[in-house]
Amino acid sequence: MDYDLPKTVNHEKIIVIIIIAIIISAAIGYMGYRQFMKWHENELQSAVSEQQQKMTEENADLEYQILQLREKIAMLQPPPVSDDRITEVFGKPQADISTETDHSCNAMRNKIKSFFNYLQQNSYTGADQTEKNPSAVFLQMVRALSANPPMIVDETRDIVSLKHNLAHFYRVLRKDRIEMIKNILSAENDVLEHAMADFYIYYVTGDCCKNDDEPCVSLNTLYEYAAFFMNTFAGKSYLFRRSSTIRCLTDYYTVLILDKANDAEINRYGIDIRPYIDLSMGDIISQNNLIFQDQYIKTLTDLNEKYNS
User: Fold this and answer.
1) In terms of domains, do 118 and 220 share one?
2) Is 302 found in the same domain as 280?
3) Using CA atoms, how far apart are residues 259 and 306, in angstroms rounded to an integer?
């Protein structure tokens, strides 16, 4: 009798069972893998969608912020001064000091005269009836400031000297004239940049065309006040109370005056112009309401090269 046959059959059954188990396990594993991959894909898609939604919202916020910034910048930009407005104040349109060609004595004198006539028509006068004509008031102020220069050296040696220097303009020009100047600065701020350019060209670089009737200021006096604004606590304090535009332009013209003083060899306080050129350049660049900004930058760049070559 063959007693080994049942053992063979049992062995084959075991092999079949193992194979079937392996197949079933593989099938279950494959199905589980498919389910896992499907779940992972759904999760990934959900995460991507969520991220896209977040990015869309962030982009919308950024676009809104950019729009707000553009609106703020637009509000800060100076409204263009119309030719009619310039003609009203100065007698003729003035587009750009860098392209203005007629700087003749007569042309500049007419513009200054038109400016004073405009001020007179708008009643910018003090209470004193003898000061009805703004040009006469200007002449009196020039003479008063020239005869009473501010303290440049040792202003802080004692409290009396400092207070004296802090009140310099109030003492010299008196309350009525100070009020008139403040009113002009406030009401005519849109044309002050043009006025400062014209006054510098006519009274400083043009030297009033050597006209004895004009209230010309000597370079020595101009240098004293440039030093006052640059080198004294009182001068800096005065500019600090002005608008950023007036402060910026005053600093710019004091640099130009100091350059002239250097050329004339009258820089008796030994003021180094170089840091003031850099400071003025920084202030000019940071401003976004200057009509002649490009010309200022070019002039300061030329000065920088002059003193650093």
Assistant:
1) yes
2) yes
3) 10
DSSP 238: H
Question: Of 204, 201, 142, whose CA–CA distance to 173 is shortest?
Answer: 142
How many helices, marked H, and strands, marked E, lie in the chain? Answer: 12, 0
Range(s) of the domain holding residue 39: 1-76
Tokens of 305: 């090269």
**Contact present, 273 and 259 (Cβ < 8 Å):** yes
- Written as six digits, the tokens of 142 are 């020039």
Please check whether residues 45 and 192 belong to one and the same domain: no
pLDDT in tens, 153-195: 888 888 988 898 999 999 999 888 888 888 888 888 888 899 8
Residues 23 and 61 in one domain: yes
pTM (two decimals): 0.69
Give the HSE-up count for residue 26: Cα atoms under 13 Å, Cβ half-sphere: 6
Q: Please list, in sequence order, all residues whose beta carbon lies within 8 angstroms of the beta carbon of residue 236, skipping any fewer than 6 positions away.
A: 229
Residue 278 has pLDDT above 90, yes or no: yes
Tell me: do 36 and 103 sit in the same domain: no
Q: Which residues contact 207 (CB under 8 A, 6 or more apart)?
A: 216
How far from each other are the two terminal CA atoms of the chain, in whole angstroms? 122
180: left (phi over 0), alpha (psi -120 to 50) or beta: alpha
Q: What is the DSSP string of 263-308?
A: HTT--TT---HHHHHHHHHHHHHH-S--TTHHHHHHHHHHHHHHHH
